[in-house]
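Input (structure):
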């Protein structure tokens, strides 16, 4: 990739074959060519793998899957549903906060930065890790999907059970090979304003996830975000 890429060593080891594969070389070439052509790519190079850097493989407790990075200025920073400090909370994340309040009584954060969750073991993984400014889904089909399939496969192979929160048909299809006999797989509609009222609101995934972690001897996630990111 371009720039000073940050990637935790646990993932470098687990994904070494993917990182050295021809399709990833093609993806790097594509990104370099796009930037050489004057196109702005989000997130910046050092944050492309932020989800993997902030949540080492051996610390993954929960996986939340998204689709593409935000394509607006200053939004994307490598974590699905999350935005950089000072950026308005996106509509889907507002509904996530609404469900957190209903489920666990947690007041909505005044910001949309989810780094704190990532640091606690919540892997906030987008299926596609880059996007061109202003053009949603512009980097789909370039190889990222294959790479993030490998990420999910490595999590599926972990000894400790993991919670997969699969919101919407896209996430559910992408993680359809996860072993539900070992891991907890919770499904609901996407938290988008278009679908949240069809079953996301009221799903109680956050309390179910924590109950599962505690049952398996793991620390629950403190979903209450700090006042300032």
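Output (sequence):
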């Amino acid at each position: 990739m371009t720039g000073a890429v940050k990637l935790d060593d646990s993932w470098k080891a687990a994904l070494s074959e993917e990182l050295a594969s021809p399709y990833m070389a093609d993806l790097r070439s594509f990104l370099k060519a796009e930037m050489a052509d004057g196109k702005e790519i989000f997130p910046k190079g050092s944050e492309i793998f932020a989800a993997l850097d902030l949540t080492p493989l051996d610390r993954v407790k929960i996986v939340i899957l998204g689709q593409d990075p935000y394509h607006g200025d200053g939004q994307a920073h490598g974590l699905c549903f999350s935005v950089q400090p000072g950026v308005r909370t996106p509509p889907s994340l507002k509904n996530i906060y609404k469900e957190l309040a209903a489920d666990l009584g947690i007041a909505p954060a005044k910001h949309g930065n989810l780094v704190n969750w990532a640091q606690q073991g919540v892997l906030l993984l987008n299926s596609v890790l880059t996007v061109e400014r202003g053009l949603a889904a512009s980097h789909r089909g370039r190889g990222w999907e294959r790479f993030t399939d490998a990420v999910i496969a490595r999590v599926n192979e972990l000894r400790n059970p993991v919670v997969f929160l699969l919101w919407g048909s896209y996430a559910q299809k992408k993680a359809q090979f996860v072993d539900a006999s070992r891991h907890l797989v919770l499904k609901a509609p996407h938290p988008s304003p278009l679908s949240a009222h069809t079953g996301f609101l009221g799903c109680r995934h956050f309390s179910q996830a924590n109950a599962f972690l505690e049952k398996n001897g793991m620390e629950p996630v403190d979903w209450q975000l700090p006042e300032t990111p």
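Notes: The chain is about 35% helix and 10% strand. The first strand starts at residue 41 and ends at 42.
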